[in-house]
Amino acid sequence: MDAFLLGLSNGVVCISYCAPVLVPYLLGQGSGVLANLGIVARFLLGRLAGYLAFSVLAFTFHTTLPASVAARSLIMGSTYIILSVLLVFYGLRNRTSSPACAARGSGPFLLKAGRLWPALAPAILGLLTGLTICPPFLLAFAAAVEKTTLTGSVVFFVLFFCGTSVFFLPIPLVGSLKRLSVLSTVGKLAAGIIGLYYFYAGLILLLGVIKYP
Amino acid sequence: MPDNPSIGPHATTMTNLRAALTSLPMMLMTFVILSGGKLTHDPRHLFALVATFCFLNTLFFLMVKTGRTDRWRAILFTVFAVAFVISFISHYVEARGSMALSESEILECRTPFCHIVIPMTIIPLALTRTIIFPGTMTGVYAAIASMFIIWIGASLSLGRGFCAWGCFLGGWDDGFSRIMKRPIIKNIGKKWHYLSFAVLLAVALTSAAMLSPTYCEWLCPYKAVTEYVQVTSLTRLVQMIIFLTLFAGLVVILPLLAKRRIQCGLFCPFGAFQSFTNKISPFEVRVDKNLCVKCKKCITVCPTFSMSEESLDKGKARMTCIKCGKCIDNCPKGALSFHIKGTSLGDDRTAQRLLFLFPAFLFLSTMAGGNIQSAIVRIIGLFTTGSLLAH
Fold first, then answer.
1. How far apart are CA A73 and CA B239, in angstroms?
2. Which end of chain A has the lower number of beta carbons within 10 A, N or C?
3. Domain total for chain B?
């Protein structure tokens, strides 16, 4: 459930930053709601592929962690705290663009891809957004590292993907994007608040190490 | 819409008479509500009844006579919040011997339900058909069902007016926001105007994920003046520190410095949620663009940041408007007014204002009346017996 929750909190931000790039392209290609749905589905599959790649990476990282509970708690607690501070900072800063979003600024590439492989372009676009290294994503990565099996890590990222994807579903129906800036502000602030929760979770892990070394 | 000071004594008498006649239905209704249809013989309760009745109806009379809304509403609203805390705390100390809730009382579902929890309960209610709050549905003080019924009725009629005419906690930040003559913090960045929506999103998601009311557990500043969970662990201690810090910051210090309702306007998730009910309420605050000179006084005084240059261009307040009437009271040109949706802006503004004031004030009187009476009885008890408690 944590993964889905984190995905939901990240999804608002993701959609608000990436949609101004994605939606004109997606809607420009489609000729109706059904056609747009097809494009969005391919786009989401691309995102899923990106996330699955990260789930394998998270498990690989997990296997390199030391075996002792205290050492793991120390590493994970510190990681949570660092990343949650980053998430809170990310929620509070005033910048209106997200340099971390891989899909942003990829307009020329997309135009080329759209001409060469029109059917694959949405999936490539999805893959690029799936590879976005923004703070909520890093926090999800840190949480996935805690999973002890590859399946657990994959399930975590699939749930994270489901959470972020909720916000993409209405896209074929969305005609007006004028409120996206407000959505972006609300999403970032909400991500900051969720970051406070993870800060607390990290703190509890570290306190546990101090109390029971 | 202030009084004209140059009118003669005859006209003043006529104005008073007209205001008294207009207030008569309110007097009857408040009497029935406050007395419950029967007069008590206990002198303390009788005094409390008469004092509350006079207090409420004097304020309503002044609202009608002077044409000002917020000036008189704020007095009642603040007194209500203080009276609520006196009454609530005394009641719970009598019932369980402490302001603190024990773990066993939570497990036995004896936690009083508050309207702020409503947005957190809706998603889990839809998904699991469970109310994620350790309270009782019916029959006792602050039961879940009664609060839902009050909320639905108020939302349909007043929309977010609930936050200025019904919230039993909002009078705290409203009161503190009126103490300073001039604000020290004048500019609050526009992005913060959306913070309450972010809090709503965060607590709705976390409550749905954890199946517990996360705002009540972690973020509610009013826990500092109502009930809180006994400090039995580090987590409970952290929660208590958060409650006290948020109360000091959002309800006392920032409203004092900014002269705005910071908790209500920038943080409360219920307020953000309630903003959507403004879409179904028949009442709204409108700007007559022909009269507006864009002096921006309304933007400066709005306690919940619901007036902006954009809203002046659109001719109406933002969806977060709590219909307190402060902007209307302060407009030097009388360009703002309470308006009933579907009618023309040129229609009788006094009649439209009264059509709003009657349900709004009656709702506030219904919510406040019992608490003010109870607080008066307890304060008399404090002077006569040395204790706020009945036993």
1. 23
2. C
3. 2
Q: Where does chain B have alpha helices with state H?
A: 9-35, 43-66, 70-96, 103-107, 118-128, 144-158, 162-165, 171-176, 195-210, 214, 234-246, 254-258, 262, 269-275, 297-301, 309-314, 326-330, 349-385
* Chain B residue with the nearest C-alpha to that of A193: B202
**N-terminal to C-terminal alpha carbon distance within chain A:** 29
Domain that holds residue B219: 9-278+349-385
Cβ–Cβ below 8 Å for A190 and B202: yes
B194/B96: higher pLDDT: B194
Both B240 and B106 in one domain: the answer is yes
What is the tally of structural domains in chain A?
1
Give the pLDDT confidence score for residue A104 in this predicted structure: 52
B217 and B330 assigned to the same domain: no
Cβ contact B194–A189 (<8 Å): yes
> Cα(B154)–Cα(B346) distance, rounded to whole angstroms?
27
Query: Distance (Å) from the C-alpha of residue A14 to the closest C-alpha of chain B?
Result: 15
Task: Give the ipTM of the model, two decimals please.
Answer: 0.81
B175-187 residue pLDDT tens: 999 999 999 998 8
B234 and B287 share a domain? no
SS3 B322: coil
Residue A193 has pLDDT above 80, yes or no: yes
Residue A5's alpha-carbon distances to B207, B277, B362, in angstroms, are: 10, 26, 42
From chain B, the residues in CB contact with A207 under 8 A are 234
Amino acid at B188: I
Q: Give yes or no for residue A166 having a pLDDT over 80.
A: no
Highest mean pLDDT among A127-136, A182-191, B38-47, B77-86: B77-86
What pLDDT, on a 0 to 100 scale, did the predictor assign at position B31? 95
Q: Please tell me the distance in Å from A83's CA to the nearest CA on chain B.
A: 18
